[in-house]
Specification:
Largest sheet: 7 strands, antiparallel
Strand content: 15-25%
Strand order of the largest sheet: 18-15-17-16-20-21-19
Radius of gyration: 25 Å
Distance between the termini: 29 Å
Low-confidence stretches: 1-59, 75-89, 98-109
Helix content: 25-40%
């Protein structure tokens, strides 16, 4: 279902809010949104407030001021005394995901500055300002405190852009896309810019001379339920933490789709779909939907750039067939009106899925069956080519809106820290207890090896406490931006200062999780955090029976075997309160942040890799005989799915690129696929069938050129 928007048929901007009674929507039950609390803003802040209300934690303003002042003074002293030392440390140091202590982009200059701009490119910023307003177009050629967050990746990538534009409506986004490609520029779609592989920021060191424009979708943050809360519609800028909080407030018995490990940074739902991100929740599967509204760019027979709006939302009153040709209305305008009403807090009748829409997947509905099939296949990976084009598109289409299933919330939940004496026993627990059958899957099963526990405890306490007491969403996103801004200060010590500070003061902070868990993590090499829920059919009781039987079987055998005399038994500790559960989740979520802080604090360097192993693989990919022995090998995973995150620390001077490539090869030899969650970006070369799929989506190569090893050139260098 395509709605073609050639140059000659631009969408008209709508100036006034429509009345709330729109006949083209099918009416279900009524949803009231208070004007003081809109669905669009729906409560990243309330998530933080809810978390705060569940604790007695408070800090008085004078204390905060004193801490801030002390921190700044300490920072100045450390920076002044150790400037020369830190400058030397930064040289040739590889940080996780390829980020380096210094960036040479400023020295080399950007292609936008080096290339003579055409008249259309020179006038583009002015044209975009007329579409979205002056305050929502920024100069991307000169980095500042307000533009740095758009130009530098969270872990990898940095570049300059001709400009940065932030549309506030779907119509504006489409008009901006048309204007950018008409000016001969390339588009870098961007959400919260929390990606880890460089695919969401401009790239300047390429053979392509076309200027880049960052198209930030964060202002498109409206979201609302449909089908009595069984599904939700999200515009492209909705944060995943914001969405989770909203659904919890609207429908306490429902939950949002899969939660990502970086939820505390509030990445967008659209980015989750574009990357096929997985997350921790085994019963829901990765971020996936075939119900979407998205743009593709092509060229018609007259040589004009044409924006095609693909509409598979499947909502009554918003289908292409609901609008007569040349009527002056279309689904984009209609959705803009509805979303604007929701954002303003006006009461609208809840929309419904059409009959066609109900037949289209709004989540990975087969995932529970698939993950329990103990085969050589991988549960999920970023090069999967199935589904609607919006899925795992990595910026080769511009996602405007998506529809997602919501899920039944458990009526009861229990969480355990289970420790194992060896990997063989840990894998048997996964196979016999967690993956016994699709109906009884746990909510999540997260694996941590001893190095992970040690490093998170050594360098991640402060971050863990921040998530525990501030919650997830915009507050943590703001603190992340502050950390990034400090790293951009014009001092040689600035890029490493925050991580040095966090590492130095880490042990001044109490242990971030109760000692009953931490002591087991320090004692055992293999640990799993297992969350189990009751969904009204005895799931919880059946899981507990399997777990108790497995532990008894193993421990009885260990006691009977002489070989096991003096050996360790399987042990488990239960989280006794919501505070325990929150602490354990936060501890797991900060793993990647803690690793970077650790390697900076210990004057080391490191690499990070995410990969999926075959579902029946029960070991650890061995390092090559020629590989340099790492100082730390930190493995943490979505254990039920066998998707692994591995952070490896090396001494300074080791060629980490060589080690990185060798490790990728070792994973592939074992049947693994990488990347599994973070996207190919500029770090991974995609398989040929994945590249071909992307080229079909974007034949002109104007959307996010260069990802996954593709050419940066127009039409991929083809004539």
């Amino acid at each position: 279902m395509l709605m073609l928007l050639p140059i000659s048929a631009r969408l008209s901007a709508r100036q006034a809010i429509r009345p709330s009674s729109s006949k083209s929507f099918s009416f279900g039950r009524s949803l009231t949104l208070r004007s003081s609390s809109t669905a669009a803003a729906a409560t990243a802040s309330s998530a933080a407030n809810n978390n705060a209300n569940n604790t007695n934690f408070s800090i008085k303003l004078p204390t905060v001021a004193a801490l801030v002042g002390a921190s700044l003074l300490t920072g100045y002293c450390v920076g002044s005394v150790h400037t020369e030392q830190i400058t030397d440390i930064q040289k040739d140091r590889a940080l996780p995901k390829g980020e380096r202590g210094c960036c040479s982009c400023d020295e080399e200059g950007s292609k936008e500055e080096a290339t003579k701009l055409t008249d259309a490119q020179t006038q583009l910023s002015t044209k975009l300002q007329k579409i979205v307003g002056t305050s929502h177009v920024h100069d991307g050629l000169h980095e500042s405190s307000s533009t740095g967050k758009f130009l530098k990746g969270a872990r990898l990538g940095y570049g300059k852009a001709l400009c940065i534009v932030q549309p506030g409506t779907l119509e504006q986004a489409i008009k901006c896309l048309q204007a950018i490609v008409d000016a001969g520029c390339v588009v870098v779609p961007q959400g919260s810019n929390t990606g880890l592989t460089g695919g969401s920021v401009p790239r300047n060191d390429t053979e392509d001379t076309r200027p880049s424009v960052v198209l930030s979708m964060k202002r498109l943050d409206a979201h609302f339920p449909i089908d009595d809360g069984k599904r939700v519609v999200c515009l492209a800028g909705v944060g995943i933490s914001t969405l989770a909080s909203s659904i919890s407030n609207w429908f306490p018995d429902r939950e949002s789709h899969s939660i990502l490990g970086s939820t505390f940074l509030n990445p967008t739902t659209a980015a989750g779909v574009a990357f096929g991100s997985g997350g921790t929740l085994m019963r829901k599967g990765p971020a996936r939907t075939d119900r979407a509204l998205y743009c593709k760019v092509s060229r018609n027979k007259w040589g004009e750039n044409t924006v095609e709006v693909v509409n598979t939302l499947g909502i009554e009153g918003l289908q292409d067939s609901d609008f007569q040709e040349h009527s002056g209305e279309n689904p984009v305008q209609k959705l803009d009106v509805y979303a604007n009403d929701v954002r303003q807090g006006y009461r609208r009748t809840m929309a419904k899925s059409s009959k066609t829409g109900l037949q289209i997947k709004a989540s990975d509905t087969d995932y529970q069956e698939k993950v329990c099939q103990y085969t050589k296949d991988v549960s999920r990976h970023n090069s999967d080519t199935t589904g609607e084009d919006c899925n795992r598109s990595e910026g080769k289409v511009l996602i405007l809106a998506t529809v997602h299933d919501t899920f039944q919330a458990p009526s009861k939940k229990r969480m355990f820290w289970v420790s194992f004496p060896d990997m063989e026993t840990t894998a048997a627990f996964r196979r016999e207890v967690c993956l016994d059958n699709p109906a009884d899957l746990p909510i999540s099963c997260e694996y941590l090896d001893r190095d992970s526990v040690d490093i998170i405890d050594r360098s991640g306490r402060i971050a863990t406490y921040l998530i525990r007491y501030l919650g997830t969403g915009d507050i943590m996103g703001y603190l992340w931006n502050v950390k990034s801004a400090i790293g951009e200060l014009p001092f040689s010590w600035a890029p490493l200062f925050c991580d040095k500070f966090l590492h130095v003061f880490n042990n001044w902070v109490p242990e971030a999780i109760p000692s009953k868990f931490l002591n087991k993590g320090r004692e055992y090499d293999h640990n799993c955090m297992v969350a189990v829920g009751e969904f009204g059919d005895g799931t919880l009781d059946r899981f507990m029976e399997r777990m108790d039987a497995f532990i008894k079987k193993y421990n009885d055998k260990a006691l009977a075997d002489d070989v096991s005399e003096g050996g360790k038994m399987i042990t488990y500790v239960e989280a006794e309160s919501q505070a325990d559960i929150t602490a354990l989740n936060a501890f797991r979520f900060v793993a990647a942040l803690a690793f970077k802080t650790y390697v900076v604090g210990e004057d080391l360097q490191g690499i990070s890799v995410d990969y999926g192993l075959p579902k029946n693989y029960e070991g650890v990919p061995p390092l090559a005989d020629s590989a340099v022995k790492p100082l730390k090998r930190m493995r943490y995973s979505h254990f039920g799915c066998n998707v692994i995150h591995e952070d490896i620390a090396y001494a300074l001077g080791v060629d980490t690129h060589t080690e990185h490539m060798a490790f990728k090869q070792a994973v592939e030899v074992e049947g693994g696929k990488l990347p599994a969650e973070h996207g190919h970006g500029t770090e991974y070369r995609a398989p040929q069938d994945t590249q071909k799929r992307w080229m079909n989506m974007d034949p002109l190569n104007v959307l996010n050129p260069g990802i996954g090893g593709l050419s940066y050139l127009p039409k991929y260098g083809q004539k």
